[in-house]
Write a structure and sequence with these properties.
28 strands; six-stranded antiparallel β-sheet; 14% helix
């Protein structure tokens, strides 16, 4: 069975008859997100990047005014944002003309408030399945290698582990992607007139057969009697009813390549298709793709590292750089029959909703202070109050209350730290007022600390796959689900809507004794509403949204590209320490 993917063939197709030529591929440039996903540039940007330039650096503002702060270095295959110094990897890939980018088609999924693009490899798979007339496709069993089932009848995407469904759509772009090599830029820097005919790329500029293969920009033009040819238009394609329409041929008699719809979907071989990146040539002529490891800053050090890379790539040294692969966020598909309970941990409740249903504390602020502190009868020490920064022997910076004078001083029972009584009361009243008190000096917690996590569900089970660094055991998978809602009285803006992006969120622990202990503590933290909170996202800058609450989770299953995965031998110790800082212990 032929491999189903853009890297299966270096050219879009071949013709066996005399005088037949190789059809040009379509070129797509993509940039890599912080989570390792690839996002395609728009066709105008790809066309700009394909053009010959005197220097490897290309300012994207030439193609799109909105991209004025972005520069792409084609030598190192990096994108630089000039105002922040952020560096991202880019890649260049070629696709057959009868694929999704060749037809000018992209596929999108509906996020929480906008449509988002699939990467072009996934668009390639979806378009081939859609054109073939298949009612659905399991992306896990294709080279897309994603844990989703796509239903073309309802135009929905369903996550296989959770059953969570989103809408999808197929979009026809008004502008085409460029053709590979000199097919995309013919004669004196002119760009051929590219159009769509029945969903396929047409080029009305005369093209000369090329002797190069794949993504190379170096082409040898034929001369003398070699006839110029034009890529043919495919007048029809296989529709949703499964009926094949006719294929037309160009004036020179060259037959069009049949659409990929006739190629069956193959079972995934275990790896996502690799990017066919344009290599950077370094010392000794060794090709490699340079990837920036520091994606938050760029300086002269970057160029120095590039120079050292050239020395390391010298033929005299047995060293070779490899591609930086994307993160593996999800395990292979796991059926419900393969999931089993966590040993020694009670199964998740049928309804594990925790919000304001947590009984609110009936003690007042003065009662809480009376419970966990004592009034000092002796003269306080000659030092400043850690809360108001006024001397403890003088009045507090806060106003007096009915039962507390501004000069009253209180000492906490266990840690013996001293504060103005009205300062400690003001600190308590500004928090969640859950009946617990935390020393602002040493962080000792008095009582049971509770947070303001919004309603949601927490589920967990064991899946039969190991984590990197824990090859001898299976994996505990945690699934957090929180919907959008309205903020309550213990949230920053009561009565205002809040968003919940990226749910359900999947997290992973090794199924070891230490991992099961971590799970039990996380369950306790969930029930105390400490895992999440509502505030400003440090990732997107969005306000009034659900965010993590300083208890780190591992959301990357099979790698540690983003820093949120395995192997990480210190993670369990660190997360248990973080939970203890919130008062969650055995």
């Amino acid at each position: 069975m032929a491999t189903f993917g853009p890297s299966a063939n270096v050219a879009a197709g071949t013709a066996s008859a005399a005088g037949a030529v190789t059809m040009p591929n379509v070129v797509v440039w993509e940039w890599q997100t912080d989570t390792g996903h690839w996002r395609p540039y728009e066709p105008a940007v790809c066309r700009l990047l394909e053009q010959e330039a005197p220097t490897p650096s290309v300012c994207l503002v030439k193609a799109d005014q909105r991209l004025g702060v972005y520069v792409v270095d084609k030598a190192s295959m990096e994108q630089l944002r000039t105002d922040t110094g952020t560096v991202r990897s880019v890649r260049r890939k070629e696709y057959p003309p009868d694929s999704a980018p060749g037809r000018g088609v992209v596929w999108q999924w509906w996020g929480d408030c906008a449509w988002s693009l699939y990467d072009m490899d996934t668009c390639y798979v979806l378009e081939a399945a859609y054109i073939s007339g298949a009612p659905s496709v399991d992306l896990m069993h294709t080279l897309a290698n994603l844990p989703y089932t796509i239903d073309f009848r309802t135009m929905t995407q369903t996550r296989q582990e959770t059953g969570y469904t989103r809408k999808i759509q197929r979009v026809q772009m008004p502008v085409v992607y460029p053709l590979s090599g000199n097919h995309g830029c013919v004669g004196a820097g002119k760009t051929p007139n590219l159009t769509y005919t029945n969903g396929h790329v047409n080029c009305n500029t005369t093209l000369v057969p090329s002797t190069s293969v794949g993504g190379s920009n170096k082409r040898t033009h034929s001369s003398g009697t070699s006839a110029a040819v034009v890529p043919p238009a495919i007048s029809g394609m296989k529709g949703r009813n499964g009926v094949n329409t006719k294929l037309t041929t160009s004036a020179n008699g060259m037959k069009a390549v049949p659409p990929m719809a006739s190629t069956p979907l193959s079972v995934n071989t275990g790896a996502r298709p690799r990017a066919r990146s344009t290599p950077a040539l370094v010392s000794g002529g060794q090709p490699t793709t340079l990837v920036a490891h520091n994606r938050h800053a760029i300086s002269h050090l970057t160029h120095a590292v590039t120079g050292m890379t050239g020395l390391l790539m010298s033929p005299a040294l047995p060293v070779r750089l490899t591609h930086c692969t994307g993160p593996i966020l999800s395990p292979p598909h796991v059926s419900k029959m393969e999931c089993r309970p966590v040993q020694g941990v009670p199964p998740p409740k049928k309804l594990r909703r925790k919000s304001s249903s947590k009984s609110r504390n009936s003690l007042s602020g003065p009662d809480v202070l009376k419970k966990y502190s004592v009034k000092m009868k002796e003269q306080p020490p000659e030092e400043d109050c850690p809360i108001c920064c006024e001397n403890l022997r003088g009045p507090s910076g806060y106003d007096a209350t009915e039962n507390m004078s501004p000069t009253m001083v209180t000492k906490l029972q266990h840690c013996n730290h001293v504060f103005h009584s009205v300062c400690l009361l003001a600190m308590y009243n500004s928090g969640s007022k859950d009946g617990s008190l935390q020393c602002p000096t040493c962080k000792t917690i008095y009582g049971e600390k509770c947070g303001n996590q919004p309603p949601g569900t927490m589920d967990y089970h064991v899946i039969p796959y190991p984590l990197p660094g824990y090859v001898d055991c299976h994996t505990i998978r945690i699934i957090y689900t929180i919907p959008h809602g309205i903020q309550g009285p213990d949230h920053p803006n009561p009565g205002k809507k809040y968003t919940a992006r990226g749910f359900p969120r999947l997290c992973y622990l090794p199924d070891t004794e230490r991992g099961r202990k971590g799970l039990q503590l996380l369950i306790k933290a969930w029930e105390r509403r400490l895992i999440f909170t509502i505030g400003r996202s440090t990732t997107t800058g969005e306000d009034n949204t659900v965010t993590w609450n300083e208890i780190h989770h591992k959301t990357e299953f099979g790698s540690n590209v983003t820093g949120h995965g395995y192997p990480d031998p210190d993670y369990l110790d660190n997360v248990i320490a973080e939970l203890a800082a919130h008062g969650v212990t055995e």
